[in-house]
Amino acid sequence: MLGLRRFGFKTKSAAKEFAALSEISLDVPRGHRIGIVGRNGAGKTTLLKLICGNYSPTHGSVEINGTVQALMSVGLGFHPEYTGRENIEASLQYNGLRQDEYKEAIDEIIEFCELGEFIDQPFKTYSLGMQARLMFAAATAVQPDILIVDEVLGAGDAYFVAKSKARVEKLVSSGCTMLLVSHSMQQILELCDEAIWLDQGAIRMHDNAFLVVKAYEEHLQGPIKHASSVMSERFVGKENELELNLNNASDYPEKLLTEKRGLELPKSIRLQEPEFMPHSMATCFPDTELIDTLDFVAPGGISRWNSDAGLKVCGFTVIGERGRTNKLFTLQPAKIAISIIAEESGKYDCRYGIVVDDMMGRSVIRIFSPADQFNIIKGAKRNIEIVLNPLQIGPGEYTIGVSILANAPIQYLQNTSRYDLLSRSFSISVELPSSLSLFGAAFMHSAEWNFS
């Protein structure tokens, strides 16, 4: 008798069972927009498939009130050999539409997905973006009670993503409930009022979307920092190469900027209305001493990411022409003041970063300081001031993040050491001066005008 091992085969061991989800208790009211975040394998897709009825729970129960439409993965449920038009017709056949509604829905889907002559080509010939467009249009043509989206909104070009978001907004505003799984925190903030953070099959946090995103981003820094350690080692090994490249202005933009600072603008230059030229007006702020408090903390508190020892932010405030305030005005000067404290004595060579995000998570300002080189003893403090002269972002609510990084050329800052990072930790409100009520915009850009 021949044994299996003689031919190089091994007997298969029994697969181990594990709980993809455990102790999940969730009540989703009608009309809510809930984002679901978590690392791969956290149980996000399993939860959605339970709600869709693709899986049955081994324990507990799932109760659904209403019709469910799901966008789970590109191509799922669409026949590769059928044309786009045939797949649309097949997807609508089970919706109980009248004949006139059926034809109107087909026409609306074809118009929305904008596939042109490709609508009569086989689905298998479509790119992933084209497949996503067709699937999304078909899934949202007839309004369901519950819409489930798993990463599909990220497919396609920027134009169609924006178009899809507008359609989701319209569906939800009319009473549809939405569950959205996404690794894009900006997408969660844009489309969801609340969010759930799944971690190893359990709900780790369920709260306002901004608070969940903020906590989740902070948590991710441990795994991300570990994964990027190889990149950091490569960066350290290229110090000599970097020194050679610094002589090239294109590799080190600050050199180019420094050389241009001495140039004067022509006196005949015509500026935009309302007229301003960045950093040309005089500023007058109250004297700023070392800041020993963290002012204007954003909802959810300070989000301090895990960083290297050395320097830490110990004070933060925002200053207008009349003193400390987080109520600022477009096209008027503003100052951000930061205090840092030394955890260890030594010589430091670092840069400071400021990120201003809108409430949808989009970065509207991202600036880094020139190098700051100094000696400091343990426990001593240092003050940093950032003058925005004038503040050029438009009216709205914003959050501010602050970082302290070991100095490196700007293109390598992502892989350098980080002494501190306070993400989305402070909040400001920006208003238009009453005299500029007609000039609302996301950003006020300076411009030169010429007429001939």
Outline the structure in words.
The chain is built from 10 helices and 18 strands. Strand 5 and strand 6 (202-208) form a beta hairpin. It has 2 domains: 33-225, Rossmann fold, CATH 3.40.50; 281-436, Distorted Sandwich (Coagulation Factor XIII, Chain A, domain 1), CATH 2.70.50.60. The model is unreliable at 1-9 and 235-263 (pLDDT under 50). By secondary structure, it is of the alpha/beta class. This is ATP-binding cassette domain-containing protein. Belongs to the ABC transporter superfamily. It holds the Pfam family ABC_tran.
**By helix and strand content, what is the structural category?**
alpha/beta
CATH architecture of the largest domain: 3-Layer(aba) Sandwich
The main β sheet shows up as:
6 strands, mixed
SSE string? EHEHHHEHEHEEHHHHEEEEEEEEEEEE
Number of strands: 18
Number of domains: 2
In CATH, the topology of the largest domain is named: Rossmann fold
- Helix content, binned percent: 10-25%
Trace the largest sheet across and list its strands.
2-3-4-1-5-6
Report mean pLDDT, rounded to a whole number.
Answer: 82
Low-confidence parts lasting 5 or more residues at pLDDT below 50? Answer: 1-9, 235-263
N- to C-terminal distance: 98 Å
Radius of gyration: 28 Å
The total count of helices amounts to 10
Question: CATH homologous superfamily of the largest domain, by name?
Answer: P-loop containing nucleotide triphosphate hydrolases
Tertiary shape? globular
CATH class division of the largest domain: Alpha Beta
GO molecular function, one term: ATP binding
Pfam family, one: ABC_tran
Keywords: ATP-binding, Nucleotide-binding, Transport
GO cellular component, one term: membrane
